[in-house]
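Please review the protein record below. Let me know how this chain folds according to its tokens.
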Amino acid sequence: MAVEPLRVACIGMGWWSDVLADAIKRSGKLTIAACYTRSREKREKFAVKYGCRPSPSYEAILADPEIEAIINTTPNDVHLETTRAAAEAGKHVFLDKPIANTVSEGSAISQCARKAGIVLALGYQRRRESHFRFIKQQIDQGVFGKLVNAEANISRDRLGQIDLSSWRHQAAGMPGGVMLQIGIHYTDVLEYLLGPVKAVSGRLAQLVLPGDNPDVASLVLEHENGALSTLNASYASASEYYLMNIYGKESSAYYDVHQGLRMLKRGSQTPVDVPCPRNDTFLEELDEFAAAVRGNGMPEMNGDGATRSLAVVRAGIASAHEGRRVEVAEILASD
């Protein structure tokens, strides 16, 4: 028997809402029934583009019995307000990362979803990329042996592309700048591959872009298994670049956006190319969300996991501001 597509409403009409809406259109498991943002022009334009109805208010969406779930790409600082309202209305929520700007709000979001019994999924698509899935499989099979170190870089060129009126590029809306906005994807991948982070040492800088937010950041992550990893994130580089190298006692893996994935085992002299076809990570996470709402499985990244992920970045921000090593447990207890 065919499963009826999950009827969703999209709220927050920015460029990322279109990224997720495009993925929904590629899926047969969800359908966009309605949309809302405060700008009438934006919601009407979105409605025409994606064949849904523009709603006059968020309250109208929550009162609509046809809507089963919310795709939420609103600003970080209203994630709690919008998700709590959805939960109280019995609507499931797919929420873009980060879960919030503070750990306390992230915890509150997770708690309200749990109390209401709704599915809460967070958009962390990077960990789903086929090369990282392959590395994780090899780690779990013992191919790497003891994990000892990793290095990562996630960089984009944003010179001349920054809209200072956007919450995404203001310290109040995106504290920690580039590290919270995109660096969090690779702190997540590093935890996914090497295990939970215990403590963080960080540095932030504003070197090229206008505004009041860091455009360059570096973290040293201490994992609970003893391994160390480093992460550089930048909006000030001349080009887009992604790097993830994982070092184990028995094997190492080298990934970058230009050369793909290679592996080198102990005793070998030349890395071996590992073909990893590009997969549709947005489609995968949204299909997983739809399946979870229908009672099949659970989201890979839920509210609790996303709150802990946020705590790692918040520890790095605190370290940069205070000039000291900061334990993740301290942030979880106080932020």
